[in-house]
Amino acid sequence: MKRMMRSGFVGFWRNSFVSLASVVIMVVTLVLIAVLIFGSAILSASLEKLRGKVDVTVYFNTDAPESEVLSLKKSLEAMSEVGSVSYTSREKALEDFKVRHQGDELTLQALDELGENPLGASLNVLARATSEYEGIAKFLSGQDALGGAGHTIIDKVNYAENKTAIDKLSKVIDSARAVGIAIVLLFAFISVLITFNTIQIVIYTARDEISLMRLVGASPMYIRGPFVVAGMMYGAAAGLLTLLLLVPFVWWLSPMTDAFGTGVRLVDYYRSNFLEVFFIILGSGVFLGASSAFLAVKKFLKV
Amino acid sequence: MIRFDKVSKSYEDGVRVLDDVSIGIEPKEFVSIVGQSGAGKTTLLKLLIAEEHPSEGQVLFEEVSVHKLKKSEITNLRRRIGVVFQDFRLLPDKTAYENVAFAMEAAGRTDEEIAADVPHVLQLVDLEDKMTHFPSQLSGGEKQRVAIARAIINQPDVLVADEPTGNLDPMNTQDVVQILKKINDLGTTVILTTHNKGVIDNLERRVITMEKGKVLRDDAKGRYKL
């Protein structure tokens, strides 16, 4: 084992130019994998954010008794589909309205002239999952939601309006993600092939040594060992270089992704998920190097 | 110990390099195989170390068919057969010492064993003062002696020398033959292929003469006759 490691290290340094070529090629592959990670994170975050915007707000008539509104709130909260329900009283709605139109004298004046609070109370319902909204909306428009006196206390339920738009956007993001992943995987596959071939060239230069090793009775494992170690070193070097290169890359890209409205600052994402990214990139590099070397030596082991 | 049993070898292009060859070799024998280029001498040796497969017949090493061995068993077989090539096949970026040590490393020997055995074997081939030389700094005869040292370092039962003197001048040829004799005297079976008449005539050992893939003669104390 010690000898394999030593020969691996020696091989890595001795063929420094070819080693450099292999490392560069692997960096390309690993950058693509990083793009896959970041791209997926951004798209997931945007999708999450969009989905978070889906809610159901139930606006009540101004004459709806507060007790009935609160009892509806209770029955909503009892539903398994419902995550949370927040109640906005008529007074709070008015207060919010006034704050929102602070600089708008005309509107405030008009409100004063009305003399009474024109705003109804409302319930904002968040479901546990996006798919549950349909059921909640149905419940609200059904008999169950009617006030005790038999007349409806609900003015309107604003579910249907934003649903269509959000559904469409979700679909766009989902397919964008699928296409993105497919493209990155395709490029990753191509660069895996290039890496494999580059490492094969490195090993080709040592083919005499390999066949001689076989003839003096070295086991295939003993012959492979140093090449696999060198392959792992290419991978590790490429991994570290990639992680380093990603720093300026995310700095440069960060404002753009943020401005895109995803709420993800790439720099923060890289920082907070560094350990995960570190292991994925380094692990992929080491795996790629080791497996390429393993397969490439196989070709010369036939003697 | 070694038996070629009705062995034939044809290549895909139809060329038949060995034709129904049957030879037996006993332990501690010194056997020379002679014949012109293309007679099938080298192919015979390649079959013995399982570098090639026979088209017909079988090659037995201690009654075990060489070509039915698994990969790991072939590795073990090759550790019991040392090989010397005409073109030396030394690793150019390793010193004489490292080239010999390399065969021990490949066989999984410890660093202590390597440190003890390598100088000893290099002394046997008269190269103790050139241990740190690279192949490019050695003469043809010296390179071949390093190759012999490498072949015997793991104390094989058989030493196979394929035209070891083919690239050497008469002086170095004699040196190499003397070393092979010494190795044989120490108990190792030696199989030598050559087309050097002088070498064979001086040896006075068993000579197998081959021609066009067939055994032409097998003399117990032969001379080089074609």
Q: Overview of this structure, please?
A:
- The complex is a heterodimer of chains A (303) and B (226).
- Chain A has eleven helices and four strands; from the N terminus they run ααβαβααβαβααααα.
- Chain A is of the alpha+beta class.
- Chain A has two domains: 2-50 and 167-298, no CATH class; 62-152, 2-Layer Sandwich (Alpha-Beta Plaits).
- In chain A, α2 (16-52) packs antiparallel against α7, α2 packs across α11 (274-298) and α9 (220-262) packs antiparallel against α11.
- The two termini of chain A are 23 Å apart.
- Chain B has 226 residues and is of the alpha/beta class.
- Chain B is built from seven helices and ten strands.
- In chain B, a hairpin with a 5-residue loop joins β1 (2-10) and β2.
- The longest helix of chain B has 16 residues, at 170-185.
- Chain B is globular, with a radius of gyration of 17 Å.
- Distance linking N and C termini of chain B: 27 Å
Give the uncertain stretches of chain A in residue-range form. Answer: none
CATH architecture of chain B: 3-Layer(aba) Sandwich
Q: From the structure provided, what is the oligomeric state, counting identical versus distinct chains?
A: heterodimer
Pair with the biggest interface: A-B, 15 and 22 residues
| Count of the separate structural domains of chain B | 1
Low-confidence stretches of chain B: none
The CATH superfamily of chain B is identified as: P-loop containing nucleotide triphosphate hydrolases
Approximate shape of chain B: globular
| Helix-strand makeup class of chain B | alpha/beta
CATH class of chain B: Alpha Beta
Order of helices and strands of chain A: HHEHEHHEHEHHHHH
How much of the polypeptide of chain B forms β-strand, as a percent range?
A: 25-35%
Number of domains of chain A: 2
Which helices and strands appear, and what pairs or packs with what?
The complex is a heterodimer of chains A (303) and B (226).
Chain A: H1 2-14, H2 16-52, E1 56-60, H3 66-78, E2 82-88, H4 90-100, H5 105-114, E3 122-127, H6 133-141, E4 154-157, H7 159-204, H8 207-215, H9 220-262, H10 266-272, H11 274-298
Antiparallel strand pairs in A: 1-3, 1-4, 2-3
Helix pairs in contact in A: 1-9, 2-7, 2-9, 2-11, 7-11, 9-11
Chain B: E1 2-10, E2 16-25, E3 30-34, H1 41-48, E4 56-61, E5 64-65, H2 71-80, E6 81-84, H3 96-106, H4 111-124, H5 140-152, E7 158-162, H6 170-185, E8 189-194, H7 197-203, E9 206-211, E10 214-219
Parallel strand pairs in B: 3-8, 3-9, 6-7, 7-8
Antiparallel strand pairs in B: 1-2, 1-4, 4-5, 9-10
